[in-house]
Structure formats: structure tokens, C-alpha cells
Amino acid sequence: MRRRASLVLLAFAVFLAAMAPTLRWYAFPRLAKIPPNQYQETVLEAKPATLLNYSTLKAEQVEKITIVQTLKGNVEESRRIERDAGRDVVVWDSLSYVMGPDGTMVSKIPERYVFDAHTQDPVHATGEMVDGDPVRREGIEFKWPFLTEKRDYQYFDAQTRTSAPIHYRGTRTFRGLEVYYFEQTVPWTKVPMPKTMPVQGITPEVLAKTGLTRWYTTRRMFWVDPVTGAPVNGEEIHREELRGARALMGQDTVTVFAGHVKMREDYVTSVVDLVKSNRLMVLLLVRYLPWTFTVLALLLLALSLWLEARSRRPAGEPGPAPGAGPDPAPVTAPA
DSSP characters for 67-95? Predict the structure, then answer.
């Protein structure tokens, strides 16, 4: 019975030892994925801010500017691209909608972002764009990979339509989570005019004829949960200018928008709660279950070997007495 029990324990030990790397290296890449139908809305505010008044063509300080950023999963496009890509793909249709203090539209920039559901690497496909302009992204945008590393990443900037390093600046604690802090500064760069302008009848083509050009710089900051790769907080110190404006506005440079943009408090709380609930599944696949299975496999193996060693001695049979030799042969008397 002991030998049979040891074989059963050995079989369980082998099974658990095999499951530990299987969960980490096979199950994790196939189960930890961004769902194709995800919908997310984030509200950011700059309080106070500087904003161009298009009726007076002068920059004015306002109480606040509100930015509503939505990410909507496009399931039909995901399925279409997956047929050619041969992997799970997510398509996010994004809209960044900027409103002035009275709720009127200042600008709106649509995007289509196509990426691998697990690695977050960009997937290049027809329809990838920013404000109607075709783009070819390199690096990440909106989200870091699962199991984010302590290193710099290439980050795509929608205004310049280019990618540049976003730098890892250390590990910090944010709302009870250990997070990685990343920072990127985009120097003053000439960028396209938005396709949709806040004043009816004014188009990018009309502004181009006046000699106006749009310039932009920002310092962006992200606090990223390294397990899920999701930013739990984000800020930007943002500036936009119109240059070559003397003929139209009486001065060479006019500020269009300037302010320190931060996530609204209720959305920070909501994102942190969501990340805390999602990170448990990732930790189960990459840490908790593999290590638990490994420890259990070692314990079962040790118990199996112990039972096997005990089974080799017949139960209840006493061992030979110390110093006892073989029994003497019987002596037969002569007839």
C-alpha cells in the first residue's frame, strides 16, 4: 500500500511541476488579453488654463478646460484584421474632445489604434489614423504591456504623429499600489491643424493661406501599474501656439491653449479600483499559482520518496540482533 501511495504522490508531483511553467509561459500569453469590446471614458481637466478666444483673437485665462477621452473597441474591425494578422488584435476608436469653460467645443481629434491584444505591440493595418491622416505607429500608446519593465519605451505622440522614448523615472507608491513612473518631453514641434475647428467656416486650408502655423510642446507623466500595464494616473503640462500670426492677429505668436492637464479625481479612483481587481488574474497566472504548484510538487516528491523508502522494509519484521552470526550446522554422531 505504501508503494502504491508513493507512486500516486509522485504522479501528482510530476503533474504540478509541469503545470507551473505551463501557466506562466503557455496559459498567460493566451489568457491575459485586452478584450476587443472594451469601452473606457476618462475626463481630464486643466484648472486654470489659457485659451484662445476666437471672437477677439486673443489668449485669455479661463477657469478650466475639460478633455473627454473615450476608447471604444471596434469588434468588427478586430475580426477583419485578425484574419490576415493571424493573432488576436484589438482596434480602439478613440476621440479626444476638448471643451471650454462654457461647454463649447474647442477641438476634437479622432484616432484609430490597432494593437496586439497581449503584447500591446502596434499592428499595422488599413484604417490606422490620427484625425483622418494615415499613420504607422511605432511603440505603445494609451497602455503599457503586461508585466511592464523598468526601462524606457517608445511612445507614440498623436499630435506630432511620431514616436519617441518615454523614460522610466523610478518606482513610486500611488493610492496603495506600487507603480512605475514614466515621463516624456516633446520639444516645440510644428504640427498639423485640427480638421475640425471651433469656428464655423474656418478650415485648415483657410488658415494655411494666412501663413499661420501650429506649434506644440508637452511634458507627459504616467503612473503605470507594472502588473497590468495600465496607467492609474496621467498628467500633461501642455502648450499650443499659432505662429506667423502678425498679419492676422497683430503679433507673431498667440497662445492657443496652455495648462496643466490632470485626471479628474473620480476617474482616478475608478481606474485604481479597476486595476486592483484585474491585476489579481495576472498575478495568479505568473506568480501565485506557478510558485504554489512548484512548492507542492517538491513536498509531494519528498513524501513519495519517504513512503517508498519505508515500503522497502517488510512491515513488523524485526531486524537482526547486533553481533548475531549465522546458526551453527547440526552435528551428526557416527553410527
Answer: EEEEEEE-HHHHHHHHHHH-S-EEEEEEE
